[in-house]
Fold each of these.
Amino acid sequence: MPPSTVSDPAYYTAAMSYHEWKREATIPQILFGLHCPYGKPSSPIARFFWRRRIWIEATFALSMMEPWERFIVMYVMYAILLALAFAGFFYLPHHLSFLHARAAYYLYGSDAAGAADSLTRLKDAASWGINASIENVSSFGSKVLSRATGSPEL
């Protein structure tokens, strides 16, 4: 039986040929290309990004979309990632210092004590979970009361 040929001429000029389908993608093509090649990259970093890209394409059915729809989905995704990166880079350090100051206020009182004193209190507080003996608890309590009253003796 002779091999059958397909009468549609567009069949042989498909959007993605075998060589296009089989080629190994570079990182910029994986991150920014509208069409992601399906050949797995050999580089570990490229493979990581390729797996995420294939996961996103399968989740949002990007292969079923028109190129302009795919562009909009990718644009929104990159805009959200850019906003998160911007917030992490510019806002997070300030917020961490704010949280540190608030934690110091609640742990050490309105006037933050010296670093050595703070470390001692932190070690005492941490020892409660490991060594919850009456001596540790009472010695920590007497230290706190002596600081509050200003008297070394109770």
Note: The mean pLDDT is 75.
Amino acid sequence: MNDGTQITEHGTRNTNPLARLTSHVSRYLGIYLALWKNSVAREMIFKSNFLLWIVVELLWFGLQLSFISVLYLHTEHIGTWTKWQVVMLIGGSHFIQQLFQAFFLINCTNLSELIRTGKLDFLLLLPVNTRFVVSLRQVDLGAFVNASFAVAVMAYAARQMHLTPALLQILGFLVLCAAGVLIHYSLMFLLATVSFWTVRAQGIVWGYYNLFNIARMPDEAFQGLFKALFTFAIPMLLVSNVPVRVLVKPLTTPTWALLLLAMTVLCFFISEVGWRASVRHYTSASS
């Protein structure tokens, strides 16, 4: 009879749910640490490529800031957003994008290759959660460097506005940024699972990534159906504007922050349903 106990690797019985959870988390942290070590070793092998992508991302970031500087030569506000508030928004958007790129982008885009080459079969046999390994097997270390430049731009913009956010505002910003990263991951991972049905879906995945440019603009710059589409259906504006508003335009109600958090849960749930359905289709077709 199964009484809820569990045999540990040392042969002793573990009946404490908290201890089992701690052991489970420690195991996955160990796996993730090993994946990080592999990523560092890979980046050190291709140092020139590592540095090149940092430079490319910085040039693109600088181009975005230059565009805003030119735009504000002809206007004082976009909606109610001043120049330095928009600079803060661009910095926040870039920060979220680079964190997403650091942890998830390369893994989402590589899913189709894992399927095409049959490497996914090996990952499915590992005694770990397959989605965990597929989603986190590589880390883009250069993106952390670019994220730090985004933070520097935000700090400079805050100084120009004589803005000193409270600790609670900064914590709220970071939590909402994490929620935004998870939304992007969930939606892009869901799109990547199309590869199970068509083998190649990289065009769809990169198409979603290109929409990140919309997130750099204030939501007040858009109206009607377009604004609704990129706030609720493809939440680019929601993901970038809400965290930055916590810093520069304190929210009068928690509605938008709660909506962002709810969207995070919903998007992850939908992506999990899509992932499981796709894996079932893949394994049944392979058997």
Note: The chain has a mean pLDDT of 89.
Amino acid sequence: MSFVATAPQLLSVAAEQAGGIGSAIGAASAAAAAPTIGLLAAAEDEVSAAVAALFGSHAQNYQVLSSQAAAFHDRFVEALRNSAGWYAAAEAANANPLQCLLDAINAPTQTLLGRPLIGNGADAVSPGRGGGDGGLLYGNGGAGYTSTTAGVAGTRGGNAGLIGAGGRGGGGGAGAMGGGGGNGGWLYGAGGNGGQGGAGAMGGAGGNALLIGNGGAGGAGGDGASGAAGVNPTQHVTQPDATPGGAGSPLTGTGGGAGTNGIAGQTGGAGAAGATGIGGGGGGGAGGAGGDGAPGGAGGAGGDANG
């Protein structure tokens, strides 16, 4: 005995598309009817009349075949639509007794322990709630909640029962950890993988395998957060100015002395002004060099000449 697997939804879509093809064929046949039926002879001679009769006969035969093809196509589309409905009804008829049987099996443990005997745990859909545990006899744990809100951590995946895999941990929001994976089945089953951490946070731990199976992989850590922008320093002079240079001699008109160089953070001393001399004015003293982070001192003015 051979088995057939079908998708009723796809059959319904195919029936609708086939109906569109039939409409296109009907429109083409109607457009061809006017120029082909009732073809007139080109002249009144016997040859022209015979040619017109031949083409007129072909046109009538085409219209008959076109009508038969349209009727066949309509029957095919109707059969396709009916088959989609029959398959859907068969699936519903088969599913209902099995679901009722499963509900009857799970009812005692669900009532006493809050957990089904057979079946997968539900995935978490809200913050703070972990994935549901799988059935006591058979079933996988549900996935933990994955957060999209900064600072809200992902939740833990559900544990399996006797046989089954642990649920995957949920991912954390920015700055929050991912949830841990659920434990595998007591007899057989792999632990769930940990959830990915949010930006700058750790991933969740993988779930444990108890007797037979592999432990879950730990979740990946989140990307590091961006650093703060640097601030440019400003000039800051905390030392007094260095010693200025001495004045030049008024008799000889010598130049003023150079200012003392400044140390780090100190302005250099100002050069002294040159003295007024008899023969000529002395040059102003050179300003001292400024220390690191400070300007140099100003040079002194030259003296006036009297001679």
Note: The helical segments are 8-36, 46-113.
